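User: I'm putting together notes for a lab meeting next week and I want to include a structural view of one of the chains we've been expressing. I don't have a solved structure, so I'd like a prediction I can at least talk through. The sequence is below, exactly as it appears in our construct file.
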Amino acid sequence: MDGLRLSCIAVPGRVTVSPVSQSAGGILQMQQEKIVVEMVVNKKCKSCVRFASKGGTAAEVLKTLYVQNEALDKLGNPERLRVTIEAV
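Assistant: Thanks for the context. Below is the predicted structure for the 88-residue chain, given as structure tokens.
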């Protein structure tokens, strides 16, 4: 499956979103260069889906993420996402 990169203006960083094939839970990787957090579907809204971290240390990094339905369609509507945060 081809990944879809979504970026948004963050202070100061970039967020990339890709599908996750298996659940590893919490923070998958944390280095000075990037932080990787696994997110799961929390709520499906009319135009987007709200993803939430699995709690613990991951919740201290990223609690919720809203992704538009059109973008999720391109990813095959996954139930889990891996979010990578990198400073620019």
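A couple of points you could mention at the meeting. Residues 15 and 36 are 10 Å apart (CA to CA). The chain has two helices and six strands.

User: Perfect, that's what I needed.
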